Amino acid sequence: MRGLQKLGVTTIRELLCHYPFRYNDFSRIVPISHTPLGERSSVLGTVVEVKVKRPRPRLMVIEVSLADDTGLLIASWFNQPWLQKTLVKGSRVILQGKVEHSFGFRRMNSPLHTSLADDADAGGIMPVYRANAAITQGWMVRVIDDALARIPAPLDPLPPRLRIKHDLMSRHAAWRAIHHPPDIPTLRQARRRLAFEEVFFLQLFMLLRRMRRAAAAPACVHRVDGPLLEALRRSLPFTLTADQHRASEEILADMAAPAPMSRLLLGDVGSGKTVVAALALAAVADSGSQAAMMAPTEVLAEQYAGKLGPLFDAAGISWALLTSSTKARDRQNILEALAAGSISVLFGTHALIEPDVLFARLSLTVIDEQHRFGVEQREALRAKGEGSDLLSMTATPIPRSLALTIYGDMDTSFIRSKPIAGTITTTRVIGKADRRLAYEAIRQALERGEQAYIVCPLISLPQSSPEAAPERDARSQEGQGANRFGPSEEDELLEQELITEFSEEPDEEEGHIQAAEQEVRFLRAKVFCERNIGLMTSRLKSAEKRQVMEDFRAGRIDILVSTTVVEVGVDVPNATVMVVEDADRFGLSQLHQLRGRVGRGERNGEVFLVSGTRNEEARRRLGIMERSSDGFELAEFDLRLRREGDILGSRQHGAATLKLVNVIRDADLIAQVHAEAKRLLAADPLLEATDHHHLAAELTTIFNPEDARA
Ligand code: ADP
Ligand code: MG
Questions:
Q1: Is the CB of 366 under 6 A from ligand 1?
Q2: In terms of residue numbers, what domain contains 72?
Q3: pLDDT tens digits, one per residue of 462-491
Q4: Which pTM was predicted?
Q5: From the alpha carbon of 573, which atom of ligand 1 is closest?
Q6: What is the 3-state secondary structure (H, E, C) of 224-261?
Q7: Does residue 708 carry a pLDDT above 70?
Q8: What CATH number has the domain bearing residue 311?
Q9: Is the domain of 529 the same as that of 594?
């Protein structure tokens, strides 16, 4: 079936693991006339009328009258023209929202909506599958039922001991219940069982891969008490914080051990990860081997060279910088020196991965902002040194549960405190009409001789199509869709999911979305006419980007208007004010990273999050930014309602196998599973016990053997 293949389903197992992404719980539908006023309810009815109104320019209202046997309800949505296609007269829909009474009718404002197929069987808890044009819900239900009927009560890959210990239902029962839940408690049990195995298999896979890697190539035993490291320590202009010290001790201990290091260094923006990496690089120089440090952008790579280069020079550590803008002649020289082993540390970008970049003896790979790279890219660099140590760094604060889930084969070091206390960045959420407050703050900052950022979600305004020219990473994986999910009571979550449809369309917006190119023109012409305003987007060539950054750093640009390209690592201490336009379009983690660009010097930072959203959840979400400056807490909010596969996409190994797990909600489960996986492999590293045969077979089924070797 081509339709199924498009969904990534090619085997019975994959079919059974094509879980409903939500359910329609018809037992919870309330007759329209019985809906309590002022509360959220779900109603099911037929669309009897659709009206489109345009009360003023830029505002479009769709009003739908919905009828059931008991009464009539009017639902309205703002600026969502596409709804006309789904909410047509005669169609049957479920609406979920707060019921209000005005002008003689029950009403819902922007309710969640779900269209039902005409033949939909409305009883009990009905699964809803991700489907596509070639596949209808009804067909999907039949095929899955067929598959459920055909598989004999299958052998359960989880050893009975584990199932008893963790009170897990059999896989067969779980598959049945997740596709046809008799009731919500059973559905919960089924989810738990299947989530357990998702995490368990992924953990086993990652731990096994690590064991295999360790066995395949002995790692370099680094010297961690050498003179160059000592010289670097002495030349540092500050003393390490306790967290930095502990992290670097952990890293150096790994490097001195014969097993290859796989360590993730997590620390908020400005927590001082770079210097910790620098110490590791120095140990490599002491050991007579080589290190590569890769950054996702040229700006960042140049920043290492600019900051660490002089320290390395002072300590006597040889280094070079290689990016795609390195001139051919220089590149040739660097490659030769590298192959000869006369360069100890090579900083760079993706350019380091090029096949002709060859090291005499690469023993450490450092990858900064590691989530910005694909797995293949990270592995490609690491593979240039057999058995080389790996230090990954990220400023996206990941809760421990997520770190365990996706980096189960990595050790983690956390830097939680910031080295430079004292400056405080205040954050305010303002409506678009109050933007002048932000401009006033910028004006004052400029008068003090400081600088400002204005961040826009788009590079340029859409021409006519609704989604022209969105900045590629304006809604990066973290930001993707996050604005639609706000925090909510965990207990209600599953129930809420039952009827919730996260519509694929953007939120209703008041006015248009701010775009960098137009913003620059506007500011130059109307607001800051006498100031120098620079523009930075991913559309610029790298030489242009570098020029803009240099001008900004040197103070030749007063206001830098940009897309999220400034998110990563940019360090201009004189910039003190940041305005983020349409802030609701970004994930909280991303906003947190962005705001880390100000308040880096002596002066406090001021951040204005401008948003015109009327979505209550989105507004509440942004409000968290005013109250919390803890990156980990913000990341948790972002992650709470999403599944890992959604966050990580295919970029992370194995994450595609995670369909049910949510790292925040399932944090306890993840910790338990991680411990079990470790215990099991400690007792039976080759999965040879009779009890573990199905487990071994299952792993081979799920994971490509190719991946296992990586
Ligand atoms: P990040 O973790 O975001 O990469 P950086 O490594 O860029 O952070 O460090 C942020 C700033 O803090 C840099 O300017 C760095 O020189 C400074 N810094 C790092 N460690 C210390 C310290 N222990 N004391 C004082 N300043 C420090
Ligand atoms: Mg950094």
A1: no
A2: 22-128
A3: 543 333 333 333 333 232 222 222 222 333
A4: 0.64
A5: 14
A6: CCCHHHHHHHHHCCCCCCHHHHHHHHHHHHHHHCCCCC
A7: no
A8: 3.40.50.300
A9: yes
